[in-house]
Specification:
heterodimer; A: alpha/beta; 10-stranded mixed sheet; 13 helices; 10 strands; 14% strand; B: mainly beta; 2 domains; 4-stranded antiparallel sheet; 3-stranded mixed sheet; binds iron/sulfur cluster
């Protein structure tokens, strides 16, 4: 009964958030260059990407259009690998000076003591490091034999910082699913406090590796593992925001499913495109910072993100969970809007 | 005016206190902490000339910064009531030789500027 009441309040809350659409979280795809070549990469970038990094001054002009900025506006530097940029500390420092907080997602390969110190000095307040297995699997997935060792030392540096809100993220796939308990033990031994798990989605380079996608049984195992481990309170473990997971909703995350793309989450992509999460199909782009005022676009466009009724189509059309799921995360849609790419709930209840 | 009542109800319910904290799959956590911006200038007490290459360390963390050619340094750090800071000449005779100074900075708001004079031995 209380659960039903909570669900109703939460649905109402989501609606209100969509109508207020306060921008709290802004991705900046500052480079598409990367030093690794991961098999599961959702961004499909390459080592010697021909696309130039976006000049910092261009991004700052877009950032300055956001007025007033929400109290905790967070800029998240993403890529490619953000540490490929030589001016990464300067980028962070200027973003902080321009009134936003900032954080970064990194593969950890270039993250050493000097870099750590310089980034904290530049005002970095949050960091995510990707770890996709113990040594053999992580190196295999990352296509690099030194990757695990480098990531391991990056984790040691980050977890020792009092300044950072730090977590480790793991992309769970058919190759590393059996290793999840071992990764858990490793993270505990490293005193890591927060761990977020997401699954491989067949987009970007991962579209070429369908054998990495979890079976339904593996997916359920993952959710059971998260649910069980949360009860132990040894680490702040959670399933990512990637999809609606029906009966597991209250067991694997702190809050119910809410895809905030275009509601609280925006992005400036490498070519100046204005969108929401960088893993969303590029046909959902709403404007471009080189031709439009970023904040005007944020305030006046993005309807497709804020009113999701259009997702009631294909397999979502007659779904009895639609009110809570609303067509899953936006990154699960292609621009033709014909059908949702992945239904997480269906993986749990194949017959449902 | 847009109604924000539902937000306020949710803020009040302990079961949903995490509702405003989120992160996207490919993003980092949010930074909810307060920070402090510390900047300053290091000069030679005898001449008033700026000194390059002085290591400025917060001794209760592992944070440090070196002064630039104008003798300036700056960094963000955790918000705190006081900051133990060590000024050290770590580059030998390269930019002159100066004695280390250990001090405690007590800031009055969340950004602070100060100058430090270093003596020769
Ligand atoms: S069918 Fe669509 S609305 Fe229903 S649970 Fe799956 S993704 Fe969500
Ligand atoms: S688009 Fe995907 S990653 Fe972004 S908020 Fe929605 S579910 Fe999360």
């Amino acid at each position: 009964m209380f659960g039903l009441f909570k669900n109703r309040i939460f649905r109402r809350f989501k609606k209100t958030e969509a109508s207020i659409h306060e921008l709290n979280y802004l991705f900046w795809e500052c480079t598409t260059r990367c030093n690794l070549n991961c098999l599961h990469c959702g961004s499909d970038c390459s080592k010697d990407s021909s696309t130039q990094d976006m000049p910092l001054s261009d991004f700052l002009l877009a950032l300055d259009t956001i007025e007033p900025k929400s109290e905790n506006l967070m800029v998240v530097l993403t890529g490619g690998e953000p540490l490929m940029r030589k001016d990464i500390e300067q980028c962070g420092r200027e973003i902080r000076k321009h009134g936003a907080r900032w954080g970064m997602v990194t593969n950890g390969y270039l993250y050493n003591q000097d870099k750590h110190n310089a980034l904290i000095n530049a005002g970095m307040g949050a960091l995510t490091i990707s770890l996709d297995g113990l040594e053999i699997n992580h190196n295999w997935l990352r296509n690099n034999n030194n990757s695990f060792a480098r990531t391991d030392s990056a984790i040691a540096l980050a977890r020792g910082s009092t300044r950072l809100n730090f977590d480790v993220v793991t992309c769970v796939n058919a190759r590393n699913i059996d290793e999840i308990p071992l990764i858990y033990n490793y993270l505990l031994s490293q005193s890591v406090k927060a761990w977020r798990l997401f699954t491989i989605v067949p987009i970007g380079r991962a579209a070429n590796s369908p054998d990495l996608v979890l079976t339904n049984q593996q997916f359920k195992y993952l959710l059971d593992f998260i649910s069980h481990t949360r009860k132990l309170k040894t680490i702040d473990i959670k399933f990512s925001c990637e999809g609606y997971v029906g009966p597991y909703e209250s067991k694997v995350r702190d809050t119910g499913f809410f895809c905030r793309a275009g509601i609280n989450i925006g992005s400036v992509l490498i070519d100046g495109s204005i969108s929401a999460c960088p893993n969303i199909d590029r046909s959902f782009v709403q404007g471009n910072i080189y031709t439009d005022n970023f904040f005007e676009v944020w305030n006046t466009k993005f309807q497709v993100f804020r009113d999701r009724k259009w997702t009631k189509t294909g397999r979502c059309a007659n779904c009895n969970q639609y009110a809570d799921c609303q067509g899953n995360g936006m990154h699960n849609w292609y621009g033709d809007k014909a059908n949702v790419l992945v239904c997480h709930n269906e993986k749990i209840n194949p017959a449902g | 005016m847009k109604s924000k009542w539902i937000r306020n109800i949710l803020r009040g319910l302990s079961v949903t206190s995490m509702v405003f904290i989120f992160q996207a799959c490919y993003g980092s956590p949010q930074d909810m902490k307060y920070d402090m911006f510390i900047e300053g200038l290091v000069k030679a007490s005898a001449t008033g000339e700026p000194i390059q290459g002085i290591k400025v360390s917060l001794t209760d963390t592992d944070q440090y910064e070196f002064t630039d050619e104008m003798g300036k340094f700056s960094f963000y750090t955790d918000l705190s009531g006081s900051y133990p800071i060590l000024f050290e000449d770590t580059d030998g005779g390269q930019n002159g030789v100066f004695m280390a100074v250990d001090t405690v900075l007590i800031p009055e708001n969340n950004s602070v500027y100060f100058e430090m004079l270093l003596d020769r031995p």
